Amino acid sequence: MLFKSIERIKEALPELVHFVMFYDDGTIFQTTFEQPVNIPQLGENLSECLQHIQNLFKLTNLKSTPYKRLIYETADLVFIILKLGERSNLALFFQKGEEKPKISAIRRYLDRIEELIDTDKLSLERHTLGELKAELNKFQQKVEANLQQIAQKKQEISNLDQEIQRIEGKIEAKQKELKFSDVIQEEIEKNIERQKEELQKCMEKKVKKELKREIKEDKKGLKVLEKSLSKEEKEIQKMKSNIKTIEQEKANILCNINAILEENKKIQQKISEKSAEISALEEKINKMEKEKLERKLLT
Questions:
Q1: Are 70 and 105 in contact (CB under 8 A)?
Q2: 90, 19 Cβ separation under 8 angstroms
Q3: Which residues contact 205 (CB under 8 A, 6 or more apart)?
């Protein structure tokens, strides 16, 4: 692995005090630095170093191929970043000794350093490929989970539609009952009016008394009916209000479904990009394996 290469580099260059292996996004996967050094911040700063150089070339409109190495020297330190794999880098920190070697002395070692780590690049690229495939698998699982969630929400909408139909059926039945009750109410009111007219014309006390009793009973029944009608109308209004609530719930679910579909669209784009990246890296690995075999056959 790369750590063995680092050990060989340390043997060749005792001035090497620290190293950092990191991805382009700043993720550190191996280093000799320990606490209290903020490792995540260290990775972020190293990534920014490379990004600033790229921004410099963009700003000046100077065309450049991907970097191979970055060297920075102070009076007592030498800092070098080397490109490893497709997305990986190696940062080396050298402490100058009493002789204070010049940067040219360090440069003489660079080819040797790159030669030492070159044998491990293939394993690093394979590791990167595995990570890319794992990321792709996560995206695919997320899409599948989203599709299941959409199916579940569509079933919820179907259930709500059935509930609306059930409530509308009850409303229709109650409205028919109300129409029938309206007819009865009208008949009772007409009967009361007719009884009042008969009461005015009637001269016999016994008949009058009976008519008054009937009118009283009819009025009592009318009040009960009106109270019942009012209750039924309130229930109908409540059911209509429930339908509006369910319709709003349906609208919210549909909005949620659209959001999930939009998320899936973005994930599908990432899947497409990740698949292309995997294909390119697989092609690169195949080329590296072929070159390694050819070198082996030549030796």
A1: no
A2: yes
A3: none
Angle ∠(88,64,26) on CA atoms, nearest 5:
25
Structural domain count, the chain: 2
The CATH number for 153's domain is: 1.10.287
**Average of per-residue pLDDT values in the chain:** 79
Q: How far apart are CA 51 and CA 25, in angstroms?
A: 10
Q: Are residues 85 and 160 in the same domain?
A: no
Range of weakest confidence among 99-103, 205-209, 291-295: 99-103
Over residues 137-150, the pLDDT tens digits come to: 999 999 999 999 99
pLDDT at position 1: 47
